[in-house]
Design brief:
The complex is a heterotrimer.
Chain A lengths: L2 E7 L8 E7 L8 H14 L22 E2 L2 E2 L20 E6 L8 E3 L2 E2 L2 H8 L21 H11 L6 H5 L6 H12 L8 H14 L10 H5 L7 H15 L12
Parallel strand pairs in A: 1-5
Antiparallel strand pairs in A: 1-2, 3-4, 3-5, 6-7
Chain B lengths: L4 H7 L6 H26 L13 H11 L1 H32 L14 H4 L1 H20 L12 H10 L1 H28 L7 H28 L5
Chain C lengths: L11 H11 L5 H4 L3 E5 L3 H13 L2 E5 L17 E2 L11 H11 L6 H21 L24 E2 L5 H18 L3 E4 L2 E9 L2 E9 L5 E5 L2 E4 L20 H8 L4 E2 L4 E7 L22 E5 L16 E2 L1 H5 L9 H13 L11 E4 L1 H7 L1 H19 L8 E10 L2 E2 L12 E3 L17 H23 L10 H20 L5 H16 L5 H21 L11 H25 L23 H4 L1 E6 L8 E6 L14
Parallel strand pairs in C: 1-2, 1-9, 2-5, 9-17
Antiparallel strand pairs in C: 3-4, 6-7, 7-8, 10-16, 10-18, 11-15, 12-13, 12-14, 14-15, 18-19
Helix pairs in contact in C: 1-5, 3-6, 3-12, 4-5, 5-12, 10-11, 14-15, 14-16, 15-16
The chains are: A alpha+beta, B mainly alpha, C alpha+beta.
Chain lengths: 257, 230, 637
Amino acid sequence: MRLTLHIWRQKSPTDKGRMVPYTLDSVSGHMSFLEMLDVLNEQLIGKGEEPVAFDHDCREGICGSCGFVINGVAHGPRRGTTVCQLHMREFEDNAELYLEPWRAAAFPVIKDLVVNRSAFDRIIASGGYISVPTGSAPDGNAIPVPKQDSDMAMAAATCIGCGACVAACPNASASLFTSAKISHLGLLPQGQPERHSRAVRMVAQAKDEGFGNCTNIGECEAVCPKGIQIENIARMNRDFIAGAAAYREAQAEAGAG
Amino acid sequence: MSSSASTLARAARLYEAPVGKKAVMAISGVILFGFVLGHMLGNLQIFLPPGIDGKFPIDAYGEALRHNQPLLYGTRVVLLIAVIAHIISAIQLATLKIAARPVAYARYTPIASSYASRTMYWSGPILAAFIVYHLLHFTTGTVHPSFRDLHVHDNVIAGFSVWYVSAFYILAMVLLCLHLYHGIWSMTQSVGFSHPTYTPKIKLGAKAFAIVIAAGNISIPLSVLFGVVK
Amino acid sequence: MALNPRTPSGPIEKRWDNAKFEMKLVNPANKRKYNVLVVGSGLAGGSAAATLAELGYNVKCFCFQDSPRRAHSIAAQGGINAAKNYQNDGDSIYRLFYDTVKGGDFRARESNVYRLAQISVNIIDQAVAQGVPFAREYGGTLANRSFGGAQVSRTFYARGQTGQQLLLGAYQALERQIDAGRVKMFPRTEMLDLIVIDGKARGIITRNLVSGQIDIHMADAVLLATGGYGNVFYLSTNAKGSNVTAGWRAYKRGAFFGNPCFTQIHPTCIPVSGDYQSKLTLMSESLRNDGRIWVPKKQGDTRPPQQIPEAERDYYLERIYPSFGNLVPRDVASRAAKRMCDEGQGVGNTGLGVYLDFGASIERLGQQAISERYGNLFEMYERITGESPYKTPMRIFPAVHYTMGGLWVDYHLMSTIPGLFVLGEANFSDHGANRLGASALMQGLADGYFVIPYTLGNYLASNPLDKVAGDHPSAQAAKEEVEARVRTLLSIKGRRTVDSFHRELGKLMWDHCGMARNKTALDGAAEKIRALKGEFWQNVNVLGESSDLNQSLEKAGRVADFLELGELMCIDAADRNESCGGHFREEYQTLEGEAMRDDANFSYAAAWEYTGEGKPAALHKEPLTFEYVKPSQRSYK
């Protein structure tokens, strides 16, 4: 098959960037989308042009490295799929495709289709963990966890941090990502001690990073390659409101020193 | 340590977080929704025939409200606060939205969101403008061709006899329908309620309420235009 | 130089405890004065960085990915073994130890393996406390499954994403320390050289992949947790970025490379579909529980599988191994598939594939039951191939999956360069010649959470180190070498792309140093790889600059190192005149085509020393003795 590609080319974070058209012949339906770009890049190098930069690593849909917007949809037309697992048989011959990076103030473009998602790491660092130093854990079976809670926590924990939710959200909100971690840990008994302060900190961090707010639109859920649901956002709102409302100034520790 | 007590203190300021703003949006929304519902039910009295004293029930209703000053002004104050809170939150959230995506997509294809949810940011301002007009039209009478205080029935007939005024009212009610559909179910999500069993029912209920309210209100100008109510 | 594995003596169940007690401790107040570099942020690196920071060390952690959460550990599907015996089915630390030594075909160090089995139980506790959502029973206790042919159910799992969940646990612990200011994280940063001063590892040279800046990081110890080198085959189940560069640079600075030829080929991967193929996708081994593997009896049979009658199908695993059938170990299943394809019975348009058929199971258990067990795998298969396994048999073929070899380390996980520790898949230590399913995650986390905190402390407490700074001549020289190499790669401007060299190398490796090897082919391949390396440095074309994100340049540096590693792998494979585990030499097989180990002559770990450019690597042997698990021939008939 033959394709016309319009790809966002941006040399550096400060460069303005523009859409550049390319045509590519003899694309096989069995190629993954990234393999199709590999072929394009080999041709570009042959012509002495710099190849298109895009993030990718595992190419099996789990590392969360890859992702860009294809014709206005994050990760392209197939639901529940990252671009590395998207295959060219999903497209028609002579298709015209527009490839753009995730667009959000909190995800500045580094080059072409590559963006800086370190804001996600800082959101996790602000509270997305259970404080349990190595060696201090009780026996694995000491605390039974209801299977339903465990399954729900797992469903939220499958988030791969790719950023498609932010890309698809008209508000560029990171609520789905943030809430997935808050839900994962907040649903488990081990996560209870820090449940509310975690929600409060992570929500504040997401705002500080420059992500927008959630307006319950649901585009994030639709493009999420792992099927994370916006029910998690409600859970995040609940934990945040409870945590913020119940907040009180810390008391100085008696007997310190 | 950056996640110290002071960061937590700052983070815990409810209203500073977008989640807090959405909660304000939701709570003020509930108040406004309650009002629109009551307002519509009151207005539907236009369809009741005059009593034996020749007085239209809706006029009597108007007078009753006017004479219960604490209720009237109490409601007005609460509504005013709710409207202001709703609008301020909306403006702040819209500002965040604009700042969060400075470069727009060349192509953007929504695949899951409702038309209603995506149009909140302009159905809202148009409704605000409509409310101003509506107050000037039927409350103060400033823009009404033949306003007479407390003659609600006559004012309505005269007001809606102008076709383009009715058309504007109908358009506004269609927008209100969309705004309410997304707003009603969205409130539950914003304050933290979501459940796979109940949320679809809430969405269905939201749709029903939105349609009933809009249809109820639209029935009035239509009835006037087509001479059902005289 | 004689290799000293520093294995403790005494009864095996006491060795680790005794060793820990004998280790020196670093005063808590002094820990923050020590700088430790951790290269890699997967299960081993992430857990080590977090744990060392918790203890108070000053840690810097590096990864080439844009976030530590994306390390390739994330792709592990099946599970993690632990000798918890929660199922009351006869498991024990000793049994896990026994299975691992036997599974590794008697080429691993007993002391290390026993320690691994001991620590396995702590890993589960730690992961659960971190919130890793392992599968549970209705009563709320942890669920287990039997995996990879084990006779007991000791595998803990989180759907088919166990690696992801364990990595996120370590990643979250790491992020907590980053937030606390005790770890400084360097994402999108690649280690390009090791700084050795007075014979000790004292720092690394890195390149910032976004700005291209080359930096010197000095430290008191360096930990490499940089994963495996399966990508030397170009096509493997590894992530595209997985590479050997950090390990190879350390090798060239004096760290010995252990058993480079020990690679694991996984039998159930989706076959190659065309020349553009960039990687291979693993399908979980669990599929073999209900799928039957077959090929047409007739060579070159091109009929669609449904039209081949039962009588004309060869269920070859069931035929050759009646007692284990489709559940024989990975290496056995892989070789059998290769043999069938070599004999012209392979399926698919390339002829490199065998059927994995669920028809019988669907008939017996119903589509619903099969879908509950394998639904997500079937969906993934269909996404990639466009064929539904409910309707037509899957096509599978073996692919490179894991490398048991790696930098040689002693019991303390220290390489032959003092102060350079190697963790996880990057070292050669615990799996011998073949790794059991669900043991990779166990080893990575054991090294990072529970071994290195003790052994590193012991090293720092017993080796007074001079203060050194980045202006030290050795550091400056290493930096200049790295800069010169980058400049050279950019200046060649030849006619071939980096990928074309990588593909050619991969094909040589797969054809000659893959599932079956022989002396002639290995010698020939080593020769060809040397020539390919020569051409690479004359004819590679790397565009762009070094001052911004340049993915071709990154790849070029990695492929250059793979070219050298590939040669060493062929040399190691040619030198080991026996068949064991993942290493199968055609000259050393039984009449039935089974692997023939030679314990009299090859019961050792091969550790290769770099002796200089163009000179042959020197072989050192660490003898392996088996006091507890007596070597026996594996039999799955």
